[in-house]
## 1
Amino acid sequence: PLNETGRAQAQAARAQLGDLHFDAVYASPLQRAIETGAIIGNVPMAEVIRDERLIEADFGRFEKKSYWRMSLPMTLYWALPELFPCPKKDGVESIDSLVARSRSFLEELEQKEYADVLIACHGGIMRALSGYLMDRKNGICWRPKPRNCEIRVFQVEEGKHQYLRDLRLPKDGVR
């Protein structure tokens, strides 16, 4: 679940959106993403559409460990996945898998008749979603690292993707 800092960040992000209404709010099935989506999307949690494809990258045996407490191969991989191999023997999900999940989700979403959609997810999958929407050859936009409650705005019309802007909270996460 979200802590008070997370709730304050989500409320600050919502404030940036004014009276914008979303036709749909999607989220990772993790409780913190559902709650974030509900706050930013200004909808009850029951209306948030959960999708397994939006869950954070699987860190295998490194799940819930501090970034600095992971093995050197994992730290290098997560910092520079374009240069270092995925430590699959440790159960870590590959970037290719993240890209495939995000592509599957967004291709399905593009078939729907929505004007404005909010997707509440996690940093790793957000990088793959952004890569798809930025038409990156490798399917990923690894840098800059997404901040908590950062909103990346994209427009999709007739199958063409356009990145519009980021709505980023200050580093402390509140305004």
Note: The CA atoms of residues 48 and 169 lie 23 Å apart.
## 2
Amino acid sequence: MEIEKTIKRPFCSVCNSKGVELYKDLKDKLFGSDGKWNLFVCTDKNCNTIWLNPAPAEEEIYKAYQKYYTHIDSNPQKRNSLRKIFIQIQESYLANKYGYPSTVPRFLRFILFLAPLRRSATDFNVMYLPSTKGKLLDVGCGSGEFLFSMQFRGWEVTGIDSDLKAVQVAQSKGLDVKYGNLFDQNFNDESFDAIVLSHFIEHVYDPKKILIECKRLLKKGGKLVIATPNNKSLGHYVFKRNWRGLEPPRHINIFSISSLKSLAILSGFVETNIFTIPRISRDIFIKSYQIKSAQEISNKNNISMILKFFATVFTSVESLFSIFYKHIGEEIILITKKSN
């Protein structure tokens, strides 16, 4: 479906500075929506937000999601003996770090310290949330896999998504998932102990408005956790306009550590813990290479051994460099809370 109406966005959504053109005539090589798109970067060097300009009009953006993946459940991995052992190691780690119940011996947790990428993925599986068994809201929850997992771990979960197919898949699991946007739901003040925005905030036109609403919905002391692509990542540095994290025209704003932290502060959050992780660096490398070389974006079963090898090397390099350069991971994680 052709996007017919666009809107000009000359100013940064975070600091309101003007932007300059960074990339021109980008195409959607991931999901094949129509159009050519330009990305601008903020002229304030302390901000460095990247954004789509012009962008699809809000009433037209749904056309860019016709082949999107949020309504598709990932295939469950077969639980062979090694997989079962790794799950036990994860459970031991989560019990020790976050307090989740587990019958697995806790000494197993130390194994994950030898595998930082696996440890990063395990932290991400619970979105850095301790076992408080409160009310959890996932905005942009997709088909509800994260919510299903957290409900099993004791949280009282609610989700929202604007993809009707995704909502139907989530509801078929017995989850409380609502169709629409955050502002349609009319939640009461201080309704939730934690709110998660996992790869959601880059898709919205007014991120500050979203964070202010999250602050209203959080109980005092409640946590907000955000995960989003990092425009200062090693992957972006290597692949430039072909970096998978750009994803025009669905990614409206792409943040740096400094701009996301500023956005949180401007929205009323004071205490912030912000860092980057290389969790998805292997997938980012593969997809970015496929975009650059004009290959079909393949699933995991059709990727050449050579590409897998170089993706593994890239992941190892990014993981190593992340120890010394905290800003180069592919994802930004921001953890903040509502002040008492």
Note: The mean pLDDT is 92.
## 3
Amino acid sequence: LLRERLPADAPALSPGEIVDPSGRVVGRHPGVAGFTLGQRKGIGVALGQPVYVQRTDVGKRLVVIGPQEGTLRQRIEAEEVTWVGRELTPGEELSGRAQIRAHGSTTPARVRALTPETVEVTLEAPVSAVASGQVLVVYGEDDEEVLLSAWISHSE
């Protein structure tokens, strides 16, 4: 689908290197667009232990693979926030429970408004494979009331 929608010379569709966390080249790939954070199957590289996509860099055409621990993220930035009820002003914080995937569990989190449309979320415990473009939903501490939803733009 991406190959049909992106220009043929798009960096995400250009071949590049697969590297381990130290930067050692361990393979090649046909395009970063074919990889997702946390992916384990279909990487095309065998290192004698399970490896996961830890991150991609479209500009450098790199796919970084390594142990599953490298997919864990605890800090998230999200944009295009839709507030439900009270909107936070920049610098204000609230506690809640964050959900990353539609059927994923919630985890305690601290939310800080960076701008009216952008938040920083710090998770109490790291979550695997938080990727840009996923939807973040924050519930009240009772896990019932939706406080906000937003698009994840960055995680670490």
Note: The mean pLDDT is 93.
## 4
Amino acid sequence: MHKILIIDDEPALRQTLGAILKRAGYSPVLAGTGQEGMQKLREDSFSLLFLDIKLPDGLGVDLLPEIHKIDAELPVLVLTAHATLEAAMQAVRGGA
């Protein structure tokens, strides 16, 4: 079963996305902060990462270089409720 890591500070979004993925046959792993998510990423392998841009302990896009050091092949989908063109461009430049 493919594991998917969801790093997002909104509990309702984490739970909803996790439930949808579970019904689709995936194994979702949830984290509410960047630090928590990075710890989970260091401890396990994932097929996909959903990453919120705005987290309580920093910007998700700032985690991209470290994420790619841990797993250079991991696909990252960036999520945000606070979309700006600059944020999108920064995410793409970071490897999302």
Note: Helices lie at 11-23, 34-43, 64-70, 85-93.
